[in-house]
Amino acid sequence: MARAASPARRAAFTALAWTLALLIFFPIAWTILTSFKTERDAIANPPVLVPLVGGADGRPPILAGEADDPAEDATGGPEAGARSPGGPFFRATLENYRVVQERSDYMRFLWNSVVIAGGSTLLGILVAVPAAWSMAFVPSRRTKDVLLWMLSTKMLPAVGVLYPIYLIATFRLPLGGGTFQLIDTKPFLVVILMLINLPIIVWMLYTYFREIPGEILEAARMDGASLRAEIVHVLTPMAVPGIASTVLLSFILAWNEAFWTLNLTAVDAAPLTAFIASYSSPEGLFFAKLSAASTMAIAPILVLGWFAQKQLVRGLTFGAVK
Amino acid sequence: MATKASRTAARLMMAPAVTLLLGWMLVPLVMTLYFSFADYRPLRNVFEPWAGFGNYERFVTSSAFWPSVWTTLVLVGAVLAITVVLGILLAMLLDQPIWGRGAVRILVISPFFVMPTVSALVWKNMMLDPVNGVFSHVARLLGAQPYDFLTQAPLPSIVLIVSWQWLPFATLILLTAVQSLDREQLEAAEMDGAPPLARFRYLVLPHLARAITIVILIQTIFLLSIFAEIFVTTGGSFGTRTLTYLVFQRVLEAQNVGLGSAGGILAVLLANVVAIFLMRIVGRNLDA
Amino acid sequence: MGRIELKGVRKAFGEVEVIPPLDLAIEDGEFCVFVGPSGCGKSTLLRLIAGLEDTSGGHIEIDGLDMTDTPPARRGLAMVFQSYALYPHMSVRKNIAFPMKMAGVDAAEQARRIEAAARALNLSDYLDRRPGQLSGGQRQRVAIGRAIVREPSAFLFDEPLSNLDAALRVGMRMEIGELHEQLSTTMIYVTHDQVEAMTMADRIVVLRAGRIEQVGTPLDLYRSPRNLFVAGFIGSPRMNFVEGEEAGRHGAHTIGIRPEHVRVGEGPWRGTVGVSEHLGSDTFLHVHGTGLAETITVRAGGEVPLRGGDPVSLAPEEGKLHRFGPDGLRL
C-alpha cells in the first residue's frame, strides 16, 4: 500500500468485514457453543447465549473464557436438570462429549478417519514425489498431456464408476477357509481415497518443484551427486514446505470425503463422515449431542485448514491462480 | 534439457502414478459402459448381457430424469451465481486495509473445512429447524412466523447450505487474484481520472476474469457430484434429486445396475463438457 | 591437467540442429571464452562439455580420454552457474563441502580445503550464513569456492556475472582473472558480453547459430576479424560499415571502420552531428547525412565542442580500414 487509508475509512471497512466474517462463521460458532449446553438449554427459547463455568453453589458466576470441567460442580447430571441460571446465561457442561463418546464410540470413528486420511495421504505422497520430480525436471513433449490427463481423472464423476467399485468391493475373495471382502475395510478406502486425491497431490508437488531452479539440481550433479543423493540431499530439503502443504491439503480432502466413505463403509471402517451421518435421523432431544459430535468431527481439520488456507488456492486450482 | 540417463529414470519414476490412475479410470469406466448396455438387476438375478440402448432410453424417458436434470442445473447455477457474486464482493472488501485481516480470513475460510455431512446436519437442525433453529428464533424475535425451510423450500435450502460451503473457496481464490493485481495500474487509472466504479469495471473485473472462470469450472465439477448434503437432509425427496443422486438411487438403492450405469455414463458425459473447458485453461497456463 | 577436445560434436533438439558438427581444442591452462549473441548455442556447448546434455554425435575428450558418455559427476569438471545455484538450505560451509562430501573426502581434508577457499575468496566471516543472507557478489564467490575445492581439471563458467550490477561485475572480472593466474587451471567461460570476453580471455571463440565464426586472441579478433559478424560483434561502440560506391573505391563490397579510427577534422566524409554522448574522457558522435550509412559513429576527444546539428567533416584512418567481400568475408 503506497497510501495510508484514512482511519475512518479503515474503521468502516473493518466493521463491515468483521460483521460479514462473523455471519459466515456463525453456524460453526453456534454449533460449538451449543455443544456445551444441556439438551434443555439447547432448545431454550429465547436461546441462551453466555456460558458460565462453575458457580452453582453460591460462588459468583464467572464468564467462561474456556470451559473447564463443570461436571464436578453440577448438582446431578445436566440430563437430570441442573437449573439454568436464567437470562441469556447457561451453565457450560462437557456432558455431551462424554455421552457421544460412550454412546457411539467416537474414538473408533476418529481412529478410522485418521488412518484413512493419513494412510491415503502417505501413500499418495510416496507415489507422487517421483512422478512430480520427473515431470518438473525432466519434462518431455508428453509431460503436459500426462498432467492434463491426470487432472481429467479427477473430474470423473463418482457415480460413473460407483457400481464397478462397489462390485469389486463386495467380491468375495477366497481367503483361508472363508471369504474376504474389501468393502468396509480401511486399506480399501485408503487406496480409493489415494487414487481420488493423487492428481491433486501430483499437481501440487509439480507446481512446487517447478519453482526450484533446475540449475541447483544440475549443480548437485556436477558436484558428483547420484540421482538418489540429488533427491535426498538437495531436492527434498528444498521442497519441504511444498511437501508439507501438499500433505496438509490431501489430508483435509480425504478427511472430508463423503461419497465413497458413506457408500463403502458400514461398521468396521466407518470414519467420522459416517459417524455424523448416523445423526441424520433425530431421536428426542439431540441438538446438544449433535453439536458435540459435529465439533469433534470438524475441530481437528478446522485447525489444520487454517494453516493450509494459502496452499488451498494452489492445490485446488492446479496452479492456474497464483 | 536432460540426458538419456535421466530421461530413463524419469520414465521409471512416473510409472507407478500413471499405472494406478490409468487403472482407476479405465477399469471401472469400461465396466460401467458395459453394464449400461446390459439388463443387470442383481437382486432379482436378472443378467442379460446385451440390452442395446434400452437402459439409456428408459433412463432418459423416465419421469424422474428431466426433473433431476433441472434440479441439477438449478442447484449448480444458483450456487455458482451466489458464490461468484458474493465472492467478488467479499474479496474486494478483504483487499481493503482492515484491522485483523488475518483473523477475518480465517473466519471466512472456515466453512470450507467443515465436512459435508456435518454442515448439512448443522444447517438442517441448528439453523433451519422450524421450531428450534436459529432462523426461527430470529423470525420470532422480529415478530414473524417461523418458516419450515427444508419442507417448504427444500431446493433453496440446499442451495443455501452448499453456497455457504463454497463461498469461502470462491472468496479465497478471487482474493488471491485481486491481490496479484498491479497496484501501479490502479494508481495510473486514478491519475487518468477513473472513478472507483470505472476502475472496478475496466481494470479489476478483467483481471479477475480468469480466476472467475477457474472458480466456475472447478465448482461445477464438484457441484455436479454433490451427494452428502442431499443424503442427510432430504434424502432426495421434495424435488431435490439431482442426476448424481438419481444414479445413486438406481444403482445402490434399487440395484438396477444397467439403468443406473446408463445414467452414470450420462453424468460422465455432462462432466466432460465442463472438464474440457477447464483443461484448456489450465493447459494454457502450463506453457507460461 | 585439463585439455578438452571436441571432435565433430553435434547437438540437435528434435529436428532442430542447434550445434552443427564442431571441432575445437582447448589447451591445458587456457582461459577460453565462448562469446556470441543469445541463442548462439554457447551455453549448450558448455553443457555438452559438462555432461548435462547428451551429444547427438561426435566425441568429447578430456585429457585424451573419451568422456562423451560419462555422467557429469565423473568428468572431473566444476561449473559455476549463472544463478549461482547455491543450495539454499545449507550454510556456506556446507555448500562448499558438498562436492567433497559426495566424493567421500575425509573431514580434516574437507576443513582444510574449505579454510583455504574461504581465505582466498574473502568468505571466512560468512561460512555459517545461509546463501539467502549474502549479497550477489558473495554468492558468486561461494559458487566459485564450491568449484575450487573439487580441484577440477577445468572450470566451466556459464555467464557468471550477468546477475551482478555493473560495478561488481568489473570487480569479479578481475578476481576471476586473478584466480586463473593462481590456479592456472583450464577455464571455459561463456558470456554474451564482448567486453568480458576481450578483458579476460587468452583465446576467444566467437559463435553464431552454433557455428564457430572465429577463434583467436582478443587482439587478433579486434585487428583482423574474419568476417562481418565478428567485426560487428567485437569492439564497442560497434564498427561502422559502409557499402556501395565508397566501398568500391577501396575495392571491397563493404568497408568497416571502428569509431576510434575516424578523426574529426578535414576529411572526405561530411555530415551533421545528431546525438553526441559526452562521457568525459571520450565523446561519441553519431553523425548523420553522410550519404554513406545511416549513422557513422565517431570517437572523439572528451572536450570536442560539437553539438547536435553542427556540420562536421570526418577522416577515416586509411590504414585501419577493414575490407569485406560480397560474401561477408575479409578480403
UniProtKB/TrEMBL annotation, chain A:
Keywords: Cell membrane, Membrane, Transmembrane, Transmembrane helix, Transport. The chain crosses the membrane at residues 12-33, 109-134, 146-168, 188-209, 230-253, 286-308. Residues 63-87 are annotated as: Disordered. GO terms for cellular component: plasma membrane. The keyword Transmembrane helix applies. Residues 110-308 form the ABC transmembrane type-1 domain. It is found in: Cell membrane. It is a multi-pass membrane protein. This is Sorbitol ABC transporter membrane protein /mannitol ABC transporter membrane protein. It comes from Hasllibacter halocynthiae.
Automatic annotation (TrEMBL), chain B:
CDD domains: TM_PBP2. Keywords: Cell membrane, Membrane, Transmembrane, Transmembrane helix, Transport. The keyword Coiled coil does not apply. GO terms for cellular component: plasma membrane. The chain crosses the membrane at residues 12-37, 69-94, 106-123, 158-178, 211-238, 258-282. Residues 69-278 form the ABC transmembrane type-1 domain. It is a multi-pass membrane protein. GO terms for biological process: transmembrane transport. Pfam families: BPD_transp_1. The keyword Aminoacyl-tRNA synthetase does not apply. Belongs to the binding-protein-dependent transport system permease family. This is Sorbitol ABC transporter membrane protein /mannitol ABC transporter membrane protein.
Automatic annotation (TrEMBL), chain C:
Belongs to the ABC transporter superfamily. GO terms for molecular function: ABC-type maltose transporter activity; ATP binding; ATP hydrolysis activity. GO terms for cellular component: ATP-binding cassette (ABC) transporter complex, substrate-binding subunit-containing; maltose transport complex. Gene3D superfamilies: 2.40.50.100, Nucleic acid-binding proteins, P-loop containing nucleotide triphosphate hydrolases. InterPro entries: AAA+_ATPase (IPR003593), ABC_transporter-like_ATP-bd (IPR003439), ABC_transporter-like_CS (IPR017871), ABC_transpr_MalK-like (IPR015855), ABC_transpr_MalK/UgpC-like (IPR047641), Mo/tungstate-bd_C_term_dom (IPR008995), NA-bd_OB-fold (IPR012340), P-loop_NTPase (IPR027417). Residues 4-234 form the ABC transporter domain. SUPFAM superfamilies: MOP-like (SSF50331), P-loop containing nucleoside triphosphate hydrolases (SSF52540). It comes from the Bacteria. SMART domains: AAA. Keywords: ATP-binding, Nucleotide-binding, Transport. It holds the Pfam family ABC_tran. It comes from Hasllibacter halocynthiae. The keyword Nucleotide-binding applies. This is Sorbitol ABC transporter ATP-binding protein /mannitol ABC transporter ATP-binding protein.
